[in-house]
Structure formats: structure tokens, C-alpha cells
Amino acid sequence: MKAKVFVSLKPGVLDPQGKAIQHSVELLGFTGIADVRQGKYFEIALQDSADQEQARESVARMAREVLSNPIIEDYRVEIEG
Amino acid sequence: MKFGIIVFPGSNCDHDAYHVISKHVGQPVDFIWHRDTNLDSYDALIIPGGFSYGDYLRAGALARFSPVMESVKKFATTGRFVLGICNGFQILCEAGLLPGALIRNRDLHFICEHVLVRVETSDTPFTNEMTAGSVLRIPIAHAEGNYVCDDVTLAELQQEDRIIFRYCDRDGSVTETANPNGSRDNIAGICNRSRNVLGLMPHPERACEDLLGSSDGRDIFRSLAATLAAVA
Fold first, then answer.
1. What's the CA gap between B201 and B57, in Å, rounded?
2. Residue B190, φ and ψ in degrees, nearest 5
3. Does the beta-carbon distance from B100 to A71 stay under 8 Å?
4. Smallest Cα distance from B66 to chain A, Å
5. Whole-angstrom Cα distance, residue A14 to residue B135?
6. Residue B41 near residue B67 (C-beta atoms within 8 A)
7. Do residues A69 and A7 touch, judged by C-beta distance below 8 A?
8. Residue B9 DSSP class
9. ∠ CA(A17), CA(A23), CA(A27), 5° rounding?
10. Which of A9, B6, B111, B183 could crosslink B147 through cysteines, CB 3.0-4.6 Å?
11. pLDDT digits (tens, 9 = 90+) for B29-46
């Protein structure tokens, strides 16, 4: 079983890295880009015996307490069986 | 009065802070490894600058889980003094001892230069030997010093006189051009509600000798020493 955690900056928090990436891809000739936001992605391998609901809860707690800073970031958890 | 300097793997301003306390403040000081948890004998702690845990995940994020940090939290609740410098400020924010967060500098660069900060209040244990409105020249050295917080927190900080240092120009005016990293409201340093925990991005410990370009940082350590002498 695998958990995927996506951490992204909250709307409204300045993302200078995203802005710089947007600038670079525009220089490369890509057009029509309204905004780029950079985030983080974690893959967490879980023991196959783990209970899916328990796994979701504990990964969500991990995401809330460690992987993201709730002042500036949001997170989303996906569990793949 | 006894000072302790917390050392994490990746701290690199610990010796600078030790030098300042032992030489300029002239008081006993220990290094405290991050796995130690007994802080009973200390009156003030310094969480120094550096790159604790390589700044992995987020600056200061992993240091907060070091065993010593639970003791630091308890230490702070007893009213004793905690000074977080640069990475130390980031750690205090991640640990919830100070509000807000420090994100990537507005212009993405790692900035290493002397900047000017205005002392906003002398009503803290760290600034009581200074005059509000005075301007200090102190170096910054960071990539993640862009202070952010929500509107409610900012209003609280302003109303409770908890913004201690703000980036300013030579005349002491707080302007956008004097803001090196994009920090909200030009914030360079804040304190907690009880005023015994201070975090700031500039490095006062690197500004204690004229030979190094400025000795303005001494005033912060002088203030803290005066506070400790008064409570002793």
C-alpha cells in the first residue's frame, strides 16, 4: 500500500519559486500560463497489512504535523491499495 | 546568570554566539546538544543560526522534533528568556513559540549583507537598553527570511507592540525598498505575548566587533544581560 501526500502553499501566500518558474517557461515560448504554484509531493510506502482507514488517518496526521506547516500550506492525502 | 546555546546538527552560528556571551557579556555559557533535555541551570537560551537538519522539508521544521525542544517550550513557559537568531527564529515559528512563518525570500536569492533595522520598542528584555526608533546595522544571511502571517496575527502583533525590529532605511523610515526579503510589514523580529521569547532574522552575534563592520548587535546582548542582572 502506498500513501501520496501533496503539500501546496495556501492561496494568497506568495510563491516566489512558482513565479520564477512561470517566468522561465514563458521565456521558453509557452504562452497562456496564468499562474504557477510549486508544491511538495511525498510517497510513503506502507506495510501491506496496514488497515486502509487507519493508514489514511495516520498519514493525514503526519501531513498535518510534519509534512506541512498549516500556517502557510494545505495538504491532500491519497491512499493507493 | 547562565546562558545556554542549543546546538542542532547543522547549527553553524553556535560558536559566534558563545564568543559573544563569554567575551562581550562576560557570563558563563554552555553548548547544549539537541538531545539533552535538562535546562534547569540556565537563565537564558540562544537558538543560533545555521541549517539545522540541512533545512530539509522546511527551514526549522525538523529541529522542532529534537528532544531538547520540549524542554525549550517548558523553559519559555517559566518566563525565562529565549533568543532565536535566523534559523533559530525559523525553529521558534515552526515550534509554535512564535506566530507566523518564514518563507523563501521575495527575490529567491540567498541574501548575505548588512541591513538596517529599527528598534520598534524598548519594552522587551532584549531591547531595554536601547531607544525606540534607533537604527541598528546588523547582517542578514538567509534564503528563507520572508516573514508571513495572516491579517489577524499581524493586527495582534501591532496592537500588542510585539514587532521588535523592522527593516528600515538610513533615516529609520520603514520603506518597501529597505525591505530585503519581502517580509510582511518589514518585520525583522517579533516576540511572544509574554515578551520573553524573541526571534529575529538579522545576526546580532555577527555584529559585536568593530573589526567585523558593526558592533550594534551588542546592544541586544547588553539588554538581555541587564534584564538578567535585574531579576537575579
1. 19
2. -135, 165
3. yes
4. 13
5. 28
6. no
7. no
8. T
9. 145
10. B183
11. 999 999 999 999 999 999
Q: Position of cell 524542554?
A: B71
B61 at interface of A, judged by CB pairs closer than 8 A: yes
Q: Which of B220, B207, B206 is nearest to B12 (CA)?
A: B206
The position carrying cell 510549486 is: A38
B153 and B217 Cβ atoms separated by less than 8 Å = no
Q: What was the ipTM of the complex prediction?
A: 0.86
Catalytic residue, candidates B93, B94, B205, B208: B205
pLDDT digits (tens, 9 = 90+) for B124-135: 999 999 999 999
Minimal CA–CA distance to B219: which of B117, B104, B140?
Answer: B117
Residues comprising chain B, all counted? 232
**Closest residue in A to B182 (Cα–Cα):** A14
Pull the grid cell for residue A11.
Answer: 492561496
- A32-73 pLDDT, tens digit each: 999 999 999 999 999 887 788 999 999 999 999 999 999 999
Closest CA to B17 of B204, B231, B186, B160: B204
Q: Taking 80 as the threshold, does the pLDDT of residue A81 lie above it?
A: no
At residue A6, what is the residue type?
A: F
Across A1-72, where does the E strand assignment appear? 2-9, 39-45
Closest CA to B139 of B167, B98, B102: B167
Q: How far apart (Å, rounded) are the C-alpha atoms in residues B67 and B9?
A: 13
Pull the grid cell for residue B229. Answer: 542582572
Q: Which three cell numbers stand for residue B137?
A: 546595522
pLDDT surpasses 90 at B220: yes
Residue A77: partners with Cβ closer than 8 Å, 6 or more residues away? A3, A4, A5, A6, A56, A59, A60, A63
The closest alpha carbon to B43, from B84, B88, B4, B95, belongs to B4
